[in-house]
Structure formats: structure tokens, C-alpha cells
Design a protein that fits this description.
single chain; 90 residues; mainly alpha; 73% helix; 0% strand
Length: 90
């Protein structure tokens, strides 16, 4: 639910910022809004959700201090938790 709320906030902020910039044509404005929302939601939904559950302790020790998720690799538990969540939130 948190990811969905953040996506709504990101969408609203993106629209307001691009309208504040003020492009010459409506089609250019809509293109920038669409691309901006896509990039923001892609990083918020896809990459952050994957990184939260990742554990980099074995492969990259410095990142392992930050990312201490329960899954070292793709397992059946990973697919049921993370994979299912990605399908629901996207």
C-alpha cells in the first residue's frame, strides 16, 4: 500500500512540476508528463521493491551493510513474496 501511495504522490508532483516548467505545446507537455511518471513509478515500484528484499552480503560486502534482506538468491519463497508483490503493485 505504501508503494501505491508514493506512486500517487510522485504522479501529482511530476504533473505539477512539468506544468510549472511550461512547455510550448500541449503534446510536448503530455509527453514529458508521461515519461516523468513512468520513470518515477518504475524506480519506486520495481527497483526499490527488489532492493528491499535483496541481501548483498555475500556478493558486495559494502552494500551488504545496507541491504540485509532475507533473500540471497531467487528461491520459491522469493517468488511468492517479491514476485507476487510486483505483480500486485504494477
Amino acid at each position: 500500500m505504501f508503494i501505491s501511495v508514493v506512486n500517487m504522490v510522485l504522479s501529482t508532483l511530476t504533473i505539477k512540476m512539468i506544468n510549472w516548467i511550461g512547455y510550448d505545446t500541449q503534446s510536448e507537455t503530455m509527453t514529458k508528463i508521461t515519461n516523468g511518471i513512468f520513470v518515477a513509478q518504475f524506480f519506486n515500484t520495481g527497483l526499490i521493491y527488489l532492493l528491499v528484499y535483496a541481501n548483498f552480503g555475500e556478493t558486495m560486502p559494502k552494500l551488504g551493510r545496507i541491504f540485509r534482506g532475507p533473500y540471497y538468491d531467487y528461491t520459491s519463497e522469493w517468488y511468492s513474496t517479491v514476485g507476487g508483490g510486483l505483480i500486485i503493485y504494477t
